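New to this. Comment on this protein:
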Amino acid sequence: MIKKNKKCIVLLSGGLDSTVVLSICKKLNLQVYALSFDYGQRHLSELRNAKLQARKQNVFSHKVFKIDFFGGSALTDNIEVPKNKDVDSIPDEIPITYVPGRNLIFLSFAAGYAESLDIDDIYIGVNSIDYSGYPDCRVEFIRNFENLINLSTKKALEGKKFKIKTPLLDLNKKEIILLGKKNNIDFSKTSSCYNPINQKGCGLCDSCLLRKKGFNEAQLIDPS
């Protein structure tokens, strides 16, 4: 009897981090159900890369859910995206690019989708070192949300617990990039910019600056 590959959900934005997480799951020979969201983000071009990576990495399934998000963020509203000259200039505060409740909502969708497919493991590319300071990228949020879905779902109450897997949580951007290189990621088909112009990075938003820092420290050229 042929053993089936273990199934997992991967939250795939089309960005660098989530694409590396996808490559990790493929290396583990997992059957991947990728999940992306169109929430009216100004960097919608990332979804194009999510679709490209899903095909390139041969996922079992890729769904894109459309959500009408509320405002309050430079990523969804007509609010200017902050620009800085380098990483050291990024203010030590939660930036206006924070989208209220984003990972809370995304992981809720992922948990419901996972329960419908009887999948235990949900992978997400959150990172708490080289990141913009978002509160829903911290280990405290992830562990508490994992506890919540294990208290509030039929699947978990019947003994099939969910696990939210965060393989990049304690890695800096250099380490994430080197891991992606090892896993043969095509970085030209990933998007990090919060405010891309003609699908090219602005080079000055927090995400672009952190990406640049990572590639420089890894002594690699960013092909994007």
Q: What stands out?
A: The longest helix spans residues 102-116. The chain has a mean pLDDT of 93. Helices lie at 16-27, 45-56, 102-116, 139-151, 154-157, 173-182, 206-217.
